[in-house]
Write a structure and sequence with these properties.
two-stranded antiparallel sheet, six-stranded parallel beta sheet, alpha/beta, 4 helices, single chain
């Protein structure tokens, strides 16, 4: 089963920036990484007037747009899918899934925290918190703390905990 690690934190703390650093570092180590971004609101990747938009407007429950370098799938959902549902239904051929958001799900979480924003931590009572990336003034003693500017150390932790030893890059 593909492991899932969620990057969580309050808004504007640097979740996306950290996720980008983690993905780049894991890719340089030969891992295939999938990402999933949770949007609590509705979003549009299809734009009015485009052929794929017109397909959905005509009543297609699933529409795919494909090119030599990308593929996008737009499908109707009757509920907000969990990470596990997304993994099982849509994700193949990767070594790890790094999500941004999904703070309420029961997957391992790394909280991004920046003291300068003077906010409460998000995961103070979350048993799925496995690490903090940032600079809390009072870090918990039961999870490791990583510097936001040293993603390699955080990736060492992710690799040791979730990825196979002696990994051969996926084809």
């Amino acid at each position: 089963m593909i492991p899932i690690v969620s990057i969580v934190g309050k808004s504007d703390v640097g979740k996306t920036t950290l996720l980008e650093k983690i993905v780049r570092e894991l890719r340089t180590r030969g891992y295939r990484v999938a990402t999933v971004k949770h949007d609590a609101h509705s979003f549009e990747i299809d734009h009015e007037g485009k052929d794929s938009w017109r397909h959905k407007q005509a009543g297609a429950v699933l529409s795919v747009i494909s090119s030599p370098s990308k593929l996008a799938l737009v499908t109707d959902m009757d509920h907000d899918l969990t990470l596990a549902e997304i993994r099982e239904e849509f994700i193949r051929g990767v070594d790890i899934i790094i999500s941004e958001g999904y703070k309420r799900e029961d997957h391992p979480k790394i909280e991004v925290y920046r003291r300068e924003l003077r906010r409460e931590r998000l995961c103070t009572e979350d048993e799925h918190l496995i690490a903090i990336a940032g600079d809390p003034s009072d870090p918990p003693k039961d999870v490791p703390l990583f510097d936001l500017d040293r993603p390699g150390e955080l990736c060492d932790f992710i690799e040791a905990r979730f990825l196979r030893k002696g990994h051969e890059p996926s084809s």
